[in-house]
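Summary for the steering committee. One of the milestones for this cycle was to obtain a three-dimensional model of the protein with methionine sulfoxide bound, which we needed before selecting residues for the alanine scan. The sequence and ligand used are listed below.
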Amino acid sequence: MTKTETYAALKTEIASVISGETFLPARYASAACLLSQAFRPRFFWTGFYIVDPLKTDELVVGPYQGTLGCLRIPFGKGVCGTCAVQRQTVIVPDVHVFPGHIACDSRTNSEIVVPVFDAQGELAAVLDADSEMPDAFDAEDARGLEAICEILLTT
Ligand code: SME
C-alpha cells in the first residue's frame, strides 16, 4: 500500500472504531494506537496533547504510544505549543534547529504536529508524531493526518 492508501484505510478504520463513542479519551487512544501501529518504526512517539479545560493556554498530555512524554506544554512553546497558537500543521524536519523545541526524548529527530478541532471549530487538542529519522514527515503525512484529525471529534 502507498502512504496515501494507508492513510485512507486508517481514516476508515478509525472512523469505524470510534463511531458512537462519546468518551473522548477512548477516541484519542484508538487513533494514537492505530497510527502508531500502522507507521512503526517511522512513528516513534504518537499521541495527543489536549487543551486543558481549566487552563486554556496550556496543553496537557493525553493518550499516546511511545516513551514518556512531558506532561504540560504552554501555548507558544515547542512544536506542539506553536501548532496550538497557529492552529495549523507544523512539520519540523530537524527538531534540533527548531527554536524552543521541547525534547521529551532525545532520540526524536523530526516531528509533525496537527491541530484537532471540535464540532464547534474550537481547538481541542494537537496530534504529535515524532520520529527518530531525520526529515520523516512530508505534505502527504500532513494531508493524511489532517483528514484523520478532522473526523476524530466530529463523527
Ligand atoms: N517535541 C514536542 C514535545 C512533546 S514530545 O516530544 C512527546 C514539542 O516540542 O512540542
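Key point for the committee: The chain has a mean pLDDT of 96.
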